[in-house]
Amino acid sequence: MTINKEKIAEIFEKISELLEIKGDNIFKIRAYLNASRVISQFPGNIEDAVLKGELSKIPGIGKDLASKIEELVKTGRLIYYEELKKSVPEGIFELLKLRGLGPKKTKILYEKLGIKNIADLKTALEDNKLLYLDGFGEKTVSNLIESIKEYNNFKERYLYPEAQLEANLIISYLLEAGGSLISNIEIAGSLRRKLETVGDIDIVVASKSKKYENIKTVSSAIAEVFLKYDKIAHVESNGDTKISIVLENGMRVDLRLVPPEDYIYALHHFTGSKLHNEELRSREKKRGYKINEYGIYNAEHNKIAAADENEFYNVFNMQFIPPELREGTGEIEEALKHDIPELINIKDIRGVFHVHTSYTDGKESLEEMVKTALEWGFEYIGITDHSVSAFYAHGLSADELNSEIEYIDRLNKRYEGKITILKGIESDILENGDLDYGNETLSKLDFVIASVHSRFNMHKEDMTARIIKAIKNPYTTMLGHLTGRLLLERKEYEVDISAVIDALSEYKTIVELNANPKRLDIDWRYIKEAISKSVMLSINPDAHNKKGFDVIEYGVNAARKGWTTKNDVLNTYSIDEVLNKIKTIREYKLNKTI
Ligand code: DGT
Ligand code: CA
Ligand code: CA
Ligand code: ZN
After folding, report:
1. Which of 248, 268, 306, 343 could crosslink 311 through cysteines, CB 3.0-4.6 Å?
2. For the whole prediction, is pTM greater than 0.85?
3. Which residues contact 324 (CB under 8 A, 6 or more apart)?
C-alpha cells in the first residue's frame, strides 16, 4: 500500500478534529492541523524525505509527528489514528462531513444531546432540541437542515462487498423472522449486477399469498418484520409496495413488496440497469409489447407468463442475459443473436498469481500461502513479493530475491505432485519505465508482474510511455493494476488505456485484473476491448494474507461484467499450459527486440 501527501494531510486533519471532539489539549490539536497544512504544501517527495530522515527538518514537524509520518509511509497505516477512531462512535465521521458542522459544534451535540450520527441529528432538529443549546441560533439550525438535505442528495456509494454483506444479513433476517410470509426474495439493483460500487441496496420480496384480498395483509406483515430490523437508523418512506430505510452505517435500502405473480417482472425491472430496461422496452414496444414491473403485456393487453428470467427473455426470443451484463453495452443485440458467451465462473480458476509473503509486506510466510492455495485446490501459486524500490513494503534486494528463489526451489521439491510454486516478483515500474532489477536477476524468475507504485501524478503521455516501455520489456509477463485506482478513495492515474491495451496486444503481454474489491483494475469497461485485441487476462488476488484469496470472487464478478470467458483468463489453464504460455511471452519478446 502506498500513501501520498494528500492522504497524510487528510489523516492529520481528522486527528485534529477527533482530538477536539474529545476535548484534548488545544496545542496538540493545533499542531496536527498545522502539520496537515504543512504536509499538503510540502514541495518535495515525502517518501524521499522519510528515506533520508529529513522529516523533522520540515518546519512544524517535530519528532513525534515525524515518526507518525514515517509509520504511515512505511506501513500505510497509523495505529494511533486507528485507536483514536475507535474511541468515538462511527456516525461522528458522517456528522463531520456536513457543511457548517465542525468539531466544536459536533462535540456540543454529542455531549449535550447524545447525537452520534446524522439520523440522530435529524430527529433532534425535528424536535427543535437544538435551539436550547449555546451557539446554535436559528441561522445555524436552518443551515444544518439545508446541509442534511445536501448530504442526502450527494450520492454516496459503497464498495460491493460491504453492501453484499449488509444485504445478505437483511435477507437472512427476513427469512428467519418472516419466512412463512415470503415466497421469493432476492437482491436486485446494481448489487445484483455486481457493480464495483453501489448507491443503495435493492431487495425484491414476494409475499406468499396469491389471494388478492390477503396480499395487503401479508405484505404489511412483511413490512412490519422489516421495520423491526435492529440496524435501521431511520425510515425514509414507508409505502404499501416500497419501504426505504437508512441503516446505522448510512447505507440506504429499498425494499419492494410484490405479490408472487408479479415477482419475476419486478425482479427484472428493479435489477436494471435503467439503460438495459429502456433499450428492451423501446425495442419491444415497436413489436407491440409493454414491459413494466408488473408484467409483460401483448398488444391485446394480456399478461404473458414467465416463470423465471430465462422465460422472461424467451418471450422476446432472446437468450437469458446474466444480470452482470445488463448495462446497456450491446447485450440485447447479442442475446437476440444467441451470441452471449458462457461467462467465466469461480470454479474455473485453477491457480493464482500475485501473492505477497512475509518476505516483504505479506502477513503470512511463503509456505503458509502455499498451504492456503492447496486448501483452495489450486494447481499452482505464483509468488510475487515487492521489488527493491518499494522500500515502504520492504522490497527485496537482488540477494534477498535470490534467496527467496532458492527457498521456492526447495519447497517445490517438498510439494512435488501437489502444487507448483512459480517464482515471480511484483516489480515496480520505475519512473523511466525500467523494471527494478537487471536482466540477469529477472531471467531466473518464471514470471514478472510490472506495476506502477510511485509518481502517480505524471502527465498522461509520460505515464503512458512509462507503462508501454515496461510492457515491451521481455521479462514483463503481466501488467499489474493498470490504473492504480482505489475505488472511492483515489482516482486512477492518467494514462491512455487504449494505447496500453494496444501495446499489451502487440507484445503478447497479459493484463492483470486485480481482484481486490477496491481496485478491480483493469476496469471491466475496458475488458471487452482488451479481449477483442487478443489480450489475455489474469485474475489476481494481490493477496497479503491467507484471507487474501477470498477476493477472487470479486475479480470473477468484474471479469463477467467484461464479457470474459474462461479461455480469456490465464489462471483457468492447467499448470503445463500456463508454463507454456508464460515462456512463450518471454521468448516472443526476446526475439522481437533482437
Ligand atoms: P445504484 O443504486 O446507483 O448503484 O444503481 P441501481 O441500478 O441499483 O439504481 P436504483 O437503485 O436507482 O434502481 C434500481 C433499478 O430499478 C434500476 O437499475 C432500474 C430500476 N429503476 C428504478 N427507477 C427507475 C426509473 O425511474 N426508470 C427506469 N427505467 N428504471 C428504474
Ligand atoms: Ca440500487
Ligand atoms: Ca434503489
Ligand atoms: Zn501486489
Report:
1. 306
2. no
3. 193, 194, 343, 557, 560, 561
